Amino acid sequence: MAQTAYQDLTHVSWKDTGFLQMFGLNEQNIMDYFARSPFYDLSCINEQLRMQSMHNQHLSAEQLDKRQMTGIDYELLYAIPQSGLFVITVGNRRSPTQVDTIGAYYVIEGTVYQSPDLYTLLSNRIYTSLHHVESAFQEVQSQATYHPAMGNYWKADEHLVKKARHDAREMLKSRDGENNPIPDARGNKGRLLTGGTPLEMQRAHAFAAGLHHMIQQSAESMLASLKTGPDPPVKSASGT
Fold first, then answer.
1. What pTM was computed for the model?
2. Which residues of the chain have pLDDT under 50?
3. Residue 68: left (phi > 0), alpha (psi -120 to 50), or beta?
4. Rounded CA Rg of the chain
5. CA angle, 146 then 229 then 145, to 5°
6. How far is Cα 66 from Cα 99, in angstroms, rounded to an integer?
């Protein structure tokens, strides 16, 4: 199978083990090897010269001047036979001095590949990078949590949050007394705080009462929303 024009065959690879076992690869036969692959265009200049040399025993394809011809032209650009690496370019020859390169192929240890163009290469790299960024955000999101009284914090800091709560309870216990009741949201008297200056005691009472009120209101709001469900949609003035 051979292509009739330059196509996107980056998903294809080709290898002829029989040719490799019999002849190996070098700079003299790499173009003949490439001509057997599905990447080779049978209408190219190289094939026309090869057919002409087959019918003229006194000429070889290398002796014919392809610069006077126009069309698809393959050339060996780079070769390291010891490493099994060959690079072949394909171009559109317009004149003896003008050739527009339209693609490239590389051969690694007998396997032929089409080199992707710059757009395809950058697109794949950007897509892969965005995929990793999205995965990182999802992982970060899974490690975050929220509490009405504490706000947002990391799950890894859960032990620090528990320690802060424990220290707060211990601080309140250490200030329990008989003369300074802390009222709750309903006006009932709770635990007492003692110690410190009158101003400090006043601030402690206000902070404790506000914190208790906030937590209780949050809990009541959550319970109410669970019982009643979401609010119905608001109708416009036109009734639609």
1. 0.54
2. 1-2, 4, 177-180, 182-195, 234, 236, 238-240
3. alpha
4. 40
5. 10
6. 12
- Cα separation, 27 vs 46, whole angstroms: 16
Exposed / middle / buried, residue 11 (Cβ in 10 Å: 0-12, 13-18, 19+): exposed
Residue 239 identity (one-letter amino acid): G
Q: Can you say how many angstroms the Cα of residue 156 is from the centroid of all Cα atoms in its chain?
A: 26
Alpha helices in the chain (DSSP H): 17-23, 30-34, 45-54, 118-142, 158-174, 198-228
Tokens of 149: 């009284």
57 token code pair: 């025993």
Instruction: From 81, 76, 85, select the one nearest 108 (Cα to Cα).
Output: 85
> How many Å apart are CA 155 and CA 141, to the nearest integer?
10
Question: What pLDDT does residue 216 have?
Answer: 61
Per residue in 140-192, pLDDT tens? 888 888 777 667 777 777 777 677 767 767 776 776 544 445 444 444 444 44
Which of 41, 39, 48, 115 is closest to 78 using CA atoms?
Answer: 115
Pairing of strands 111-114, 144-147: unpaired
Q: Helix (H, G, I), strand (E, B), or coil: what is residue 98?
A: coil
What are the backbone dihedrals phi and psi of residue 184, each rounded to the nearest 5 degrees, phi first? -90, -170
